[in-house]
Amino acid sequence: MKRTSRDIRTANRYEVLRQIIAQSPTSRQTLAAATGLSVATVATLVGELLDLRMITEVGFEDSAGGRPRGLVAVNASGGALIGVDMAETYVRVELFDLGLNVLARAVEDMRPGESRPEQAVGQVAAAVGAVVAQAGIEGARVLGVGVSVPGQVDRATGIAEYAPNWDWHDVPLLDLLAEYIAYPLHLDNPLRASAVAELWFGAARGREDAVVVNLGTGVGAGLVLGGGLYRGVSNSAGEWGHTTLVLDGRLCHCGNHGCVETYVGAPGIMLNLRELGPRSPLLHPEDQTATIDALALGVAAGDPVAVKVVRDTARYLGAGIADLVNVYNPEVVVLSSWVAKKLGAPLLDEVREAVRRHALRRPFAATEIVLSPVPTDPVCLGAATFALEGALQAVGQRSPKRTTPARSRTAPPS
Amino acid sequence: MKRTSRDIRTANRYEVLRQIIAQSPTSRQTLAAATGLSVATVATLVGELLDLRMITEVGFEDSAGGRPRGLVAVNASGGALIGVDMAETYVRVELFDLGLNVLARAVEDMRPGESRPEQAVGQVAAAVGAVVAQAGIEGARVLGVGVSVPGQVDRATGIAEYAPNWDWHDVPLLDLLAEYIAYPLHLDNPLRASAVAELWFGAARGREDAVVVNLGTGVGAGLVLGGGLYRGVSNSAGEWGHTTLVLDGRLCHCGNHGCVETYVGAPGIMLNLRELGPRSPLLHPEDQTATIDALALGVAAGDPVAVKVVRDTARYLGAGIADLVNVYNPEVVVLSSWVAKKLGAPLLDEVREAVRRHALRRPFAATEIVLSPVPTDPVCLGAATFALEGALQAVGQRSPKRTTPARSRTAPPS
Ligand SMILES: [Zn+2]
Ligand SMILES: [Zn+2]
């Protein structure tokens, strides 16, 4: 019962801005109809967003018989947001306007020997400096920076608790970043970043209960429950990649056997391929991306090995997603991240059929299964959205939750 | 974003009454401290509960230096609640006072050939009539009847959509019951009934995120998320019993293979035993209850077959519960229902160890795993709690959501 009326006000503020971003210009009356809020409540929230200069008045529309209705629209230049996707093999940084259009982008390889926290922080700081310069905006207009880092993170303290690929343990990431970056910083992981991207801009928009299945090197499920992100008691909910699909099956790096991830993460798909055709030309043993690309091309060309590998993978995935359907009874399951994007519609079709075979009939009938409609990198977009939420949460508070120390700089030391 | 300030008020009303039931007498100040609500909000809610005669003023306590504080307590005789547990093989009906103490009880066998809806409804109606007579209370004081029926149910329409054991499909159960029962009726299933029992009176009280694992003939998980029951989009969340634990494993009655239920439901445990010792004297082939009783006695006596069967079952259960820990990141996992109660502490110890082996380290460290502390039948208690929630929800509404037709009677026709 910890949810307060303050939380409700914040959630309503999110919802109204979400609607305005989705469809500008719009009137308070249209917003009220779309959100289910009263016109008076919408008017108050619109007033707050106008004060923040996140939206602007843009004229009037006629209303049948009544007086003209004022229209509002996103003030795209009212601020900028930065999203950082620190992935296993690269750092990607994007700068967005308030309409969440990408204004600038920087992508850097994260080389295997250079993943110590200080090195990664230096790379992120440089890339953040680069996108601000590239976009040609004043630093003062950056409302915040959202940072996504794989593994388990503590948002409140800004600590990356455990990132298996880099062997990071309890790295005070935001404190390190704050040495270089003078904007409010927000930490979370890719599961929740891509879930919030779907919630604001994708297939989970306007849904109460949705599951965003991330298919990349690692796999997991971002959970939208009751119209908001679900985090669990220590912010680690959604580790569906480490649920057991095959008791005593493949060994997983988490120590368990038969985890979903070992069958449907990119390395797991490579193993599915290797088991089927050890000498298949589709297999690029040291390169996940090249292998998944080859599979996608192979399926398009009707290569029987490629078709079989995608079908086998979809069978594992279908059984795992059926578990989510049975336990959560969601309105929609969204397939997101790069493997889903590359394998696309053929994978989706096979997955739907496999989920149908494994799930209970009624919850299956209540669930749509779709590919993410987000056109850009959902993790960068979601990370930027955390920064936007941070700015909206700060309304009426004296200062944002996380303030940057006075000694901060905006560029790395060299 | 559908959660309104009305929902918050209802949730707060639940929370205050829950606290008063847990500890009477108590003061508004103590309630405010326990719930995190302001004293003014608590005073308003206490006023509503006094108006409903669910609680009474019971005097004053001194407060250091200040004026004496008014004390309130549950008005146990302020109303009665009835819980109905329609299980696979029996119907159990209990009548509770407002302190949720059992005042009367009726249990009837549901014989295999007599599970047509009309027959079951006749039995329930007779048992409801019997407990009201037994308790010697005026019918007018019954605030409502909660009914739990296995399978998938539609609460809003009162329809039992699918009960596999009886082959029921879309039975309009509440309409049928309303022919005989003149009290407000509330329908749900045993997963959610036992979860709400834990939420109000058991191990989930005061928790934000909890999973109540039901171990009986069927198995499933009632989900408490954000301090309230989570239902999913079509009220079928929690079908953990039908998640895949062993791909291509045992055939389940749901059509899938390798479901958790086929390994840890009572018939699954019997199969674990049969595989280990086909001629074991512990096995009572036609009697689940007798077999589980024999296993419990065998473990207590150190019988190596019984110990091995419980360990094997705990291993399956541990892998399945680890999935819930990884996906939900709950504060507490509660083992409930009759199999958990009979196998008790030896099962719990083995399960904890097995979950530790299968779950991720951090979410495991954040989770307690306990046996249900509810001393009575949690399904009857939970069903009665749905009736109590119904009465609390109706505050300030003209009439309860479901009213009984004028033609209703309180006893079956025969
Ligand atoms: Zn794993
Ligand atoms: Zn099943």
UniProtKB/TrEMBL annotation, chains A, B:
Keywords, alphabetical: Kinase, Transferase
Q: Offer one Pfam family short name for this entry.
A: ROK
Recorded superkingdom: Bacteria
Q: Does the keyword Transferase apply?
A: yes
- Location of the region described as Disordered in the Swiss-Prot/TrEMBL record: 395-414
Q: Tell me if Metal-binding is a UniProt keyword of this record.
A: no
GO MF annotation, one: kinase activity
Alphabetical list of PANTHER family matching this protein = BIFUNCTIONAL UDP-N-ACETYLGLUCOSAMINE 2-EPIMERASE_N-ACETYLMANNOSAMINE KINASE, ROK (REPRESSOR, ORF, KINASE) FAMILY
Of which family is this protein a member? Answer: Belongs to the ROK (NagC/XylR) family.
Q: Return the protein name.
A: Sugar kinase
